[in-house]
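Researcher: Let's do a round of design. I'm pasting the structure tokens now; please hold your answer until I've finished.
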């Protein structure tokens, strides 16, 4: 018996190494922001924490709590009729192997940055001086128009490029200090910072904050609710596209942009009531090998346009629209996109496949659009199968997988062969066999969850009331995180190995003119 146990112990590392080899493209380590944390050591394609697979776990738990009707026993007339109906719709239990989508592009930064490149150099790949100069022009135009309408402001003087950089630096500093109010820098309290406070007076900062604009006036042809920030988002997207080529595998999801839990735990009820609920949702397409956010999509929760909620019948319809928007520039490249239950649907996946975009998504009978899927695969058997067992049906290149691990997990994919086997390794229970699509989904989603856990700590803490300003500061936060990822992939990282927090501090000081932007080494 001891010998058998030793054999199992020897097999587990071998399986682990084989699985790791399949995901060697996840080359930015678990310690993605240069800090050691509770989740920084261990297998990059599984997690023992409940949070990491919250959507997956919730999907399975929901199905256990509300089981579907048990399927008729094999051979029963109803079962035979259902099988015939599913076969008529093209679904079959006969599986065939298929090669993975071919991908020959080399992902990564498009530009080699010098070893002396500074934090500011990486940030300005996405927010260059011409964008900052436009902010200066628009802010001054808005201030002038505001004063023409509401009366002169004797304390106002036109803002300069140097002041605009300092203004951004002050705002970005809240992502490092996690301080709710940027004005705390001048307060003399716990969050005060004398070296930063000396660059600009609090009164001057507040004046710039009052008049700050990216687009001062609405165009007569503009109907979009985000017109005040859309030009900046478009410019940011161009910067992302030109600076980075993504890997084949990507994820569509909503990143963690919730309130800092420390603030929520310490603020008063009155402060909580004052804070307005966000009027938009932010979705991204993210490279699952590096964490680089390739594309941003902002959806306004209120609005009467063609993509407003009142024009959409249900959430799956909204999420399909979001997915189409995020994949607009991905056609013809054989990308593999991982999706959560709210996006996964047969109709969407077939539509994207025609554009040479392949998908692998978690499916929930309660949360997903299950139109066109075989009902026999969506109901749970009366007797739960053993862990690791699975059922698969195939239609063309599309496979519907029902895999059991403490409950049923369903996956829809046209990116992975249904006959290829994988493995998920758990610290406590050892290896669990599964189809390769399940292993791939767990690998890439686990990596993104770890990334989210890290980078969500570095969003700018300033919370304005205006929706366009909220979107703007979230976008700036994403740009800084992307800049740090490029920094970690460059020669500059080997000169000064900054953590994410140190990189942010360095960027703030360079924006405020307290450090040379490109120091000589």
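Researcher: That's everything. Go ahead.
Model: Designed sequence:
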């Amino acid at each position: 018996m001891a010998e058998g146990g030793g054999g199992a112990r020897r097999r587990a590392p071998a399986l682990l190494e084989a699985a790791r080899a399949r995901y060697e493209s996840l080359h930015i380590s678990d310690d993605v922001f240069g800090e050691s944390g509770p989740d920084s050591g261990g297998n990059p394609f599984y997690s023992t924490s409940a949070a990491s697979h919250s959507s997956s776990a919730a999907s399975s738990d929901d199905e256990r709590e509300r089981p579907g009707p048990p399927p008729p026993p094999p051979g029963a007339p109803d079962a035979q009729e259902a099988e015939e109906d599913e076969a008529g719709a093209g679904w079959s239990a006969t599986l065939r192997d298929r090669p993975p989508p071919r991908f020959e592009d080399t992902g990564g930064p498009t530009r080699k940055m010098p070893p002396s490149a500074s934090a500011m150099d990486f940030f300005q790949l996405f927010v260059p001086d011409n964008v900052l100069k436009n902010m200066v022009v628009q802010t001054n135009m808005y201030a002038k128009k505001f004063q023409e309408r509401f009366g002169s402001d004797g304390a106002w003087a036109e803002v300069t490029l140097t002041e605009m950089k300092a203004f951004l630096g002050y705002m970005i500093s809240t992502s490092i200090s996690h301080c709710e109010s940027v004005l705390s820098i001048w307060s003399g309290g716990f969050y005060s910072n004398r070296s930063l406070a000396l660059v600009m007076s609090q009164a001057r900062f507040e004046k710039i904050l009052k008049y700050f604009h990216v687009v001062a006036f609405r165009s007569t042809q503009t109907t979009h609710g985000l017109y005040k920030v859309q030009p900046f988002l478009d410019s940011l997207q161009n910067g992302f596209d030109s600076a980075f080529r993504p890997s084949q595998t990507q994820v569509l999801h909503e990143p963690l942009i919730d309130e800092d839990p420390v603030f929520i735990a310490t603020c008063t009820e009155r402060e909580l009531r004052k804070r307005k609920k966000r009027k938009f949702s932010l979705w991204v397409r993210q490279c699952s090998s590096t964490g680089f956010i390739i594309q941003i999509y902002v959806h306004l929760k209120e609005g009467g346009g063609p993509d407003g909620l009142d024009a959409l019948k249900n959430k799956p319809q909204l999420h399909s629209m979001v997915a189409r928007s995020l994949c607009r520039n991905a056609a013809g490249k054989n990308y593999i996109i991982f999706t959560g239950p709210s996006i996964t649907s047969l109709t969407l996946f077939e539509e994207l496949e025609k554009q040479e975009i392949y998908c692998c998504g978690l499916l929930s009978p309660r949360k997903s659009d299950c139109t066109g899927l075989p009902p026999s695969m969506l109901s749970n058997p009366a007797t739960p199968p053993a862990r690791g067992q699975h059922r698969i049906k195939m239609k063309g290149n599309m496979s519907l997988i029902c895999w059991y691990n403490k409950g049923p997990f369903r996956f829809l994919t046209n990116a992975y062969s249904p006959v290829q086997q994988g493995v998920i390794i758990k610290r406590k229970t050892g290896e669990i066999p599964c189809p390769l699509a399940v292993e791939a989904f767990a690998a890439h989603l686990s990596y993104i969850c770890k990334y989210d856990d890290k980078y969500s700590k570095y969003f700018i803490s300033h919370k304005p009331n205006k929706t366009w300003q909220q979107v703007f500061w979230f976008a700036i936060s994403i740009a800084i995180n992307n800049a740090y990822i490029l920094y970690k992939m460059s020669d500059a990282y080997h000169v000064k190995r900054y953590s994410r927090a140190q990189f942010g501090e360095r960027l703030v000081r360079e924006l405020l003119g307290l450090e040379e932007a490109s120091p000589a080494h």
